[in-house]
Design a protein that fits this description.
CATH topology of the largest domain: D-Maltodextrin-Binding Protein, domain 2
CATH superfamily of the largest domain: Periplasmic binding protein-like II
Strand content: 5-15%
Number of helices: 18
CATH architecture of the largest domain: 3-Layer(aba) Sandwich
Length: about 425
């Protein structure tokens, strides 16, 4: 009881502080739109620069505030009746909580469906549909994306060895066998991440689910309608195990998977000669490469190949979705701006940013790597958000992570008990 009283006191204190600090006073006639998000520092600067064309054209000021405590503070602001006009959610599941409570404006009331289909691939629109008190609503605007379905490899050594980019999953397994026959190790895998250990395995599972099941099954899985203890999910785990539990395939053998920090996992690719030749990880991983490694010169990536051709070329990723809490003319005008590629132009040209908008041309991207991410996204048969981020925290950031650790520890021999234990954590 004492613990909860302390938490309540902290929340109340936050609410009082935020209410006191609320939006700045503005001159009569000045229009201001407030945005709150999780990105800070250089990303915050690039966002502000991206908003300048809108501000100059309309005279409306956009005030952005970023915080590393976004998840806590947005809850305080909304429940304290002091929400920003818009909030940039890196996890749709959190936005979904506010949608269920009726706090979020339905953008179907603001935008014509045909217009949104012109601006976005249908997958993005599908992911924005969330269940509110009175039925499904269009919960927000997608503005930034990243791609997870990537396999990285050392350029000169890969091609010098006579290897070619695989186009199918079977070709990728055959390439792995060829590497072993040549005396090489195909894969570097590491999932250690302190309290988040296991999330790397969840990404593999999600990519495989998209490649072996209809997207509707994936969506059912992320909402709890398709249990982990089902043939479909077990099949994905078994396919993952064909790579993970082969000591010849993994640098350091299977035990190293559990002890290698995820950020260190790709480093053996850059040994001389390489101690591994492939590493599956998202577009953020170059930040963990050695300082002297340059993408495009020393290392490159290919799209993680499909498994079943019936499901095309699915892409797993993540991104920011902007939920809207207040309805004023200037907020509507700004929300429309966010649906355009123009609103991402500065950020795209600065690098490290992928736009989900159809009208963001490829020639905006400053490097071949950035442009390649965008091309993979544009060519995707379907795009889906990281599944663990969509699941309730007790599962997606809880039993799913720990279950994957147990699964790897036992080399998959405990698949039934692991899947049942993950399901048991699902909230009623």
């Amino acid at each position: 009881m004492k613990r909860w009283n302390i938490i309540l006191a902290v929340v109340v204190a936050f609410a009082m502080l935020l209410t006191a600090c609320g939006p700045r006073e503005v001159d009569d006639g000045e229009q201001v739109v407030t945005v709150f998000g999780a990105f800070v520092d250089e990303d915050a600067r690039r966002f502000r620069e991206s908003m300048r064309p809108f501000e100059e054209r309309t005279g409306i000021s956009v005030e952005y505030e970023g915080s590393g405590d976004f998840e806590t503070l947005i809850l305080v602001r909304v429940e304290g009746a002091n929400p920003p006009d818009l909030a940039a959610f890196p996890q749709p599941g959190l936005l979904g909580d506010f949608v269920k409570q009726g706090h979020v404006i339905d953008l179907n009331d603001w935008f014509d469906t045909g217009y949104l289909q012109q601006q976005y691939d249908q997958s993005w629109l599908d992911m924005a549909m969330m269940e509110g008190p009175d039925g499904e609503i269009m919960s927000g605007i997608w503005h930034r994306a990243n791609v997870k379905s990537l396999v990285w490899y050392p350029i000169p050594e890969f091609y010098d060895a006579g290897y070619t980019i695989p186009e199918t999953w079977d070709e990728m397994l055959a390439l792995s066998d060829q590497m072993v026959a040549d005396g090489n190790v195909p894969w570097c895998i590491g999932i250690e991440s302190a309290g988040a250990t296991g999330w790397v395995a969840t990404d593999w599972m999600e990519d495989i689910m998209l490649r072996t099941q209809p997207v509707e099954k994936y969506d059912m899985w992320t909402t709890g309608e398709l249990p982990f203890d089902s043939p479909e999910v077990k099949k994905a785990a078994e396919i993952m195990g064909e790579i993970w539990f082969n000591d010849d395939y993994v640098f350091g053998g299977v035990p190293s998977i559990l002890t290698t920090p995820f950020g260190d996992a790709p480093t053996p690719m850059f040994d001389s000669p390489p101690n591994c030749f492939m590493h599956r990880q998202a577009s953020f991983i170059p930040a963990f490469f050695p300082d002297n490694v340059e993408v495009g010169r020393d290392v490159d990536y290919f799209y993680l190949p499909p498994i079943d051709p019936a499901f095309g070329r699915p892409v797993l990723g993540a991104g920011d979705i902007y939920g809207v809490f207040n309805d004023r003319p200037e907020v509507r005008e700004f929300a429309e701006y966010l649906t355009t590629g123009e609103s991402t132009e500065f950020w795209v040209k600065a690098g490290g940013f992928v736009s989900p908008h159809n009208d963001a041309p490829l020639d905006w991207y400053p490097t071949d790597a950035d442009r390649g991410y965008a091309e993979i996204l544009q060519q995707a048969t379907t795009f889906r958000f990281d599944g663990s981020d969509l699941m309730p925290g007790a599962v997606g950031a809880g039993s799913f992570w720990t279950g994957m650790v147990d699964f790897v520890s036992a080399r998959g021999e405990n698949i039934d008990s692991v899947m049942r234990s993950i399901d048991a954590a699902w909230p009623d």
